[in-house]
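I have a small job for you when you get a moment. Would you make up a two-line entry for one protein for me to read? No commentary is needed, just the two lines. Write everything out right here, beneath this request.
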Amino acid sequence: MGMNRSKYLADFLMEKGYDTDCAGILIETKNSVTQKRVDDSDVLIFVLPRVQEKFLQHFRIEKQKIITLNVEDRLDILCPEKPNFTPVEAKEAYERLVYPKLRRQIAKYIPLLQSLS
């Protein structure tokens, strides 16, 4: 609902040669999605089904393909034994627990992305 994981994924796909952007769906997110950004998109990638569900309550899609991953990113769920994280610890946890799953799950959609290029 924020943008950290989507930024990571956008940067990862950009390194692969795709023109990417990322945005959060919450209004208070400093880089929030707009209908214009949606309209200008060919593919919308959601990191979690619950994010897609919330997105579809507020935005319309027409021609865009949708890719929905299922990568949990809430540290309180991923690491219930550790209630608080410093920013450095959080970054390390994302690098260890979240980013590899994002890369694995998006890999199966690369053929679709290549066909749209």
